[in-house]
Amino acid sequence: MHTSLLATTKRRRSRITARQAAALDQGSDRLVRIGDSVLGEETASLPLLLGLLDLLDPASDWVLDIGFGTGEPVERSALDEPERSIIAIDLHIPGVGDLVHRIESAKLTNVVVIEADARQVLPALPPNGLSGVRTFFPDPWPKKRHHRRRLVNESFTRELARYVQPGGFWHLATDWPDYADQIAAIVTASDLWRGGVIPRPDHRPVTRYERNALAAGRAPIDMWFERVTA
Ligand SMILES: C[S@@+](CC[C@H](N)C(=O)[O-])C[C@H]1O[C@@H](n2cnc3c(N)ncnc32)[C@H](O)[C@@H]1O
User: Which of 37, 112, 132, 185 has its CA 20 to 30 A from that of 58?
Assistant: First the structure.
């Protein structure tokens, strides 16, 4: 296996607890695991994904949470905002197990989980089907030579817009000022989004990642963009 792929795979599986592993072993009709597969090559995955979306109330507001981390903030949002349905995507297997456990324990009916690279999943979503997207603390890839691995780039920004209805939102947060500058420059350069930096909203749950960033002296920068028609 290519060394960087090996490192990614190891990281995806790091430190899984017995509870998280049991939730994954047991499975859930609210979970689809695509992992590292390329969706186009994994013929079984697309119908599974579409079946997963069928579990969501079509009359609710669909919000995509890209890179949710641990299950706690999604569970809290799902309980606080029952009028919303959350499509939660992450590659990190322990976090996926955590969220599946929470969904089953709290009997949440407004969340589905996809273990995948969000970039693979977008084409399975209905165009204009999302009322909003959350991307809280995307991996910062702080070294300059790794910046090209950052999730938010021109093509992702353009592609994501296809799935967000006009007037819908994209709420991002990062603790890396140069990533915030990069996001603001890329997203505002697109004629599909308008917005910029906002004060930290109280409704965004504080996560372990954010607490660690604050302890290291890095304050969060929130950004809010509205989907506009070009
Ligand atoms: C720094 S953590 C932040 C987690 C969480 N949003 C928070 O605020 O605490 C970034 C998360 O994004 C996930 N991630 C990175 N690239 C991703 C991708 N292409 N698709 C889905 N998830 C991704 C990682 O596995 C990780 O859980």
Answer: 37
